[in-house]
Structure to design on (678 residues):
């Protein structure tokens, strides 16, 4: 819509000629200019400039819908379906599972089980609907070379033994999962662009990026702080648009980094209150998610994996549909299992902090 | 509850302790705050609870409000802090504006302009249901009086009164705001325009910062004009970024200082210990103040004591 050519807009002839003569060919050209500058370029009076802007805006504006129409459309397209993770407590908290058409983030310290979670999700999406899957293909973008098909088959055999006993089904399932290994951000961007067509043609039902932070850290060496944001922003909006456009769930993994103090997280009116605690906080380093504020804004659902008091927890840190809850889990041969379906309410700011203390050894 | 001179006598009973006014304040994480520039519809005054907030919203309603003010919602989030609560907030606004007049609301429609795609329809439905339940709870006696009004109290009707625009680039954003003038001329019962994340696109693609400032000031003037001409509230969402001032990094409004001037009121949402607070940071007529609030399954509500059983989302 932004690049809609002026010639297609059915403007009155004198305006169309005026805009074409000054080489304002798309809606973007016309609307990016403030009124006064437009007047100067067109060499016309204020009413003409205003009329031009109003007409171009009306043509370039996307159509509106009522929220009710949205809901009905959602229901009609089967949008109520979500990708169930088979972790009952988590599914209940998320309103059925991972939402379609939105970005879901999985963040946590290293070795906590993020990749295991993604493997299980990939398997679930490839399963036939009869067994609760989405019966579709999966695109798994693996930047850290952690994908292991052997592990995935093991998860499958232990979680769904009756399915995998059938001949050839394991091969068929594995054949539905497409793994790509981009080595740089440019590679990743290129494969994303090609992905858009693939997603529709090949009935892809899930896109997993494991992990996003690894790609970005490659770029950080050469870029200054301000510039670093640009490749991320573009990737971000592209991922979101793919998700919405093709209505597949997109799951992205994120890493953590340390933060030694709370600089940059207060407003000016809050600073006075914090002075008393400053000394204690200065020596306390805590973990924050990588990729920054913009990323945190843009994801729809955020699952924080953390460990403390000897157990690992999945926290639903950000979700429009659920309260702030946590579930204890372990990683076994059949993948991730919840120790309890009863959620633990997390009150206060604790929901977004990430702990990493004393992980217990993998249970076997 | 103090005596009020509301033109809507039923509004007195409607001021339940649990429903906040139009610009409900969502509590936020300590590092997640919403800067809300509210219209004079919502007055956040020190020590006043939601009761008075609602009273001022409702009683002053269309009569005394100075409609030409602009709302700016700012969403701040530090690196690890998600921002789910601002979503509740915006949706709560869009729902509250539709409370029928006989129940103390405005009985209007809402325009929701979404730039990030974070509008979740299922959640809107939930909040609408919660709102209706609260209305029915507080006005049990007025059912018989207004049978036609009651028919309107279905969540589907609330949803049908929200006009949703999804825009994907800053050009479309400018186009929508320009088009709004014509749209509002045709739909005269719109009472609130919520723009979710006015900064998202402008932070991505604009290389020429000076041009960006000029375009943004043009936008804000247009929005002010719309607010004034059509007698409605405009609520914008913004983001925050960090700034190095007074020897430390602090959170501040995105899009620069010039954009922060175009807002009339500003409301910041933040965590204070375990409670969510809203802080009125900038207002032409009210002093700086804070008030607590809570997010529940039914939407944004007044803060209750910490020993309550939290409402769960089903």
């Amino acid at each position: 819509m932004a690049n809609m050519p002026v010639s297609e807009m059915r403007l009155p002839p004198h305006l169309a000629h005026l805009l074409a003569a000054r080489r304002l060919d798309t809606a973007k050209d016309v609307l990016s200019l403030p009124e006064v500058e437009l007047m100067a370029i067109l060499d016309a009076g204020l009413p003409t400039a205003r009329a031009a802007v109003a007409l171009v805006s009306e043509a370039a504006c996307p159509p509106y819908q009522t929220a009710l129409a949205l809901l009905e459309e959602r229901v009609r397209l089967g949008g109520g379906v979500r990708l169930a993770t088979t972790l009952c407590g988590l599914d209940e908290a998320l309103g059925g599972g991972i939402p379609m058409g939105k970005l879901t983030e999985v963040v946590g310290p290293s070795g906590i089980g993020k990749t295991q979670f993604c493997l299980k999700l990939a398997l679930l999406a490839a399963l036939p609907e009869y067994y609760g899957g989405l019966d579709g293909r999966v695109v798994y973008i693996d930047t850290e070379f952690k994908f292991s098909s052997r592990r995935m088959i093991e998860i499958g055999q232990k979680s769904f033994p009756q399915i995998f006993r059938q001949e050839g089904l394991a091969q068929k399932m594995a054949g539905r999962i497409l793994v790509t290994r981009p080595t740089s951000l440019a590679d990743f961007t290129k494969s994303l662009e090609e992905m858009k067509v693939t997603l529709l043609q090949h009935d892809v039902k899930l896109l997993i990026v494991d992990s996003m932070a690894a790609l970005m850290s490659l770029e950080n060496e050469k870029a200054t702080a301000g510039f670093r944001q640009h490749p991320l922003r573009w990737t971000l909006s592209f991922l979101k648009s793919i998700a919405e456009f093709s209505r597949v769930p997109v799951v992205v993994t994120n890493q953590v980094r340390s933060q030694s103090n709370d600089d940059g997280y207060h407003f000016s009116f809050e600073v006075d209150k914090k002075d008393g605690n400053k000394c204690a906080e200065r020596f306390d380093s805590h973990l924050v998610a990588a990729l920054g504020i913009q990323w945190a804004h843009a994801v729809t659902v955020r699952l924080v994996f953390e460990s403390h008091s000897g157990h690992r927890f999945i926290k639903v840190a950000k979700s429009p549909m659920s309260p702030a809850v946590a579930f204890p889990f372990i990683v076994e041969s059949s993948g991730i299992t919840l120790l309890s379906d009863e959620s633990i309410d997390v009150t206060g700011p604790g929901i977004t902090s990430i702990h990493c203390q004393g992980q217990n050894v993998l249970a076997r | 509850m103090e005596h009020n001179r509301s033109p809507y006598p039923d509004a007195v009973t409607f001021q339940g302790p649990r429903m906040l006014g139009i610009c409900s304040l969502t509590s936020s994480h300590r590092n997640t705050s919403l800067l809300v520039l509210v219209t004079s519809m919502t007055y956040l005054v020190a020590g006043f609870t939601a009761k008075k907030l609602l009273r001022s919203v409702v009683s002053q309603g269309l009569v005394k409000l100075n409609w030409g003010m602009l709302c700016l919602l700012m969403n701040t989030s530090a690196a690890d802090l998600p921002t789910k609560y601002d979503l509740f907030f915006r949706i709560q606004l869009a729902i509250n504006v539709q409370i029928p007049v006989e129940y103390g609301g405005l009985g209007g429609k809402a325009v929701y302009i979404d730039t990030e795609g974070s509008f979740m329809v299922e959640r809107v439905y939930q909040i609408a249901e919660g709102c209706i339940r609260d209305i029915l709870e507080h006005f049990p006696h007025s059912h018989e009086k207004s049978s036609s009004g009651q028919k309107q109290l279905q969540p589907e009707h609330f949803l049908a009164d929200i006009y949703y625009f999804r825009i994907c680039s800053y050009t479309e954003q400018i186009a929508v705001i320009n088009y709004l003038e014509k749209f509002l001329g045709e739909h005269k019962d719109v009472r609130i325009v919520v723009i979710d994340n006015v900064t998202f696109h402008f932070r991505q693609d604009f290389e020429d910062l000076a041009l960006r400032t000029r375009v943004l000031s043009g936008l804000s003037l247009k929005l002010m004009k719309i607010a004034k001409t059509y007698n409605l509230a405009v609520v914008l969402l913004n983001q925050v970024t960090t700034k190095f001032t007074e020897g430390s990094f602090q959170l501040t409004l995105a899009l620069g200082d010039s954009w922060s001037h175009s807002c009339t009121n500003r409301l910041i949402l933040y965590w204070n210990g375990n409670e969510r607070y809203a802080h009125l940071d900038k207002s032409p007529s009210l002093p700086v103040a804070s008030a607590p609030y809570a997010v529940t399954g039914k939407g944004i509500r007044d803060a209750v004591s910490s020993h309550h059983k939290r409402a769960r989302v089903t």
Summary: The radius of gyration of chain B is 19 Å.
